Amino acid sequence: MDELITFRDIIKKSVLNLGAFTNVSWVDMCLSLLVAFAVGMFIYYVYRVCYRGVVYSHNYNVTFVLMTIITALIIMTISTNIVLSLGMVGALSIVRFRTAVKDPMDIVYMFWAISAGIAAGAKIYSVAIVGSLVVGLTIWWLTRRKEASSPYLLILHYEAIAEDEVKRRIRKMNAVLKSKTVRKELTELTVELRIRDDNTAFVNDFSALEGVKDVVLVSYNGEYAQ
């Protein structure tokens, strides 16, 4: 009986120890938040400089700074208690974000902010700082590289009299047909093509053709017209 009671006491003591909170010093807390803020601002700067999407959103960029700080707060909180950390994992697993992410690079920045916040909250400052520098320099280097040719969309509105000449010139440009809309007296043709060194003189050539009403050339990244 004594052995059974002793065993129960051990179990109770273990559970109580698991539920005990450990204090986070003011120095560690301030340092973690400072590192999280600094890394978050670095992410903010890289996103603003290297953004290549359609419409830049300042508010969306600010969320990366806040996400880094909040993640560090969560990690510092759950590190004080094992039971609390398990409960926090269960609570966060039911959270669903409904905001549509249009640019895949935005997901990269989200994971970057969360990872940096985890490292800062766990007091692994070298990982947060050095890792963020490597990621930031990689993004900057990749976005600054210029391709030999850039994709564009060429949109033509022309009458039937210009049909043959337009087709002949399109074939010479190795363009890819995207859409063609035929109305009673007017045809709308949209093709994708690549241009080297921003040579857009052919737009004037198309516009000078008899029967061509208007010519539009827009930058194209495969998904959005810019």
TrEMBL record:
It comes from the Bacteria. This is DUF4956 domain-containing protein. The chain crosses the membrane at residues 26-47, 59-89, 109-142. Keywords: Membrane, Transmembrane, Transmembrane helix. InterPro entries: DUF4956. Pfam families: DUF4956 (PF16316).
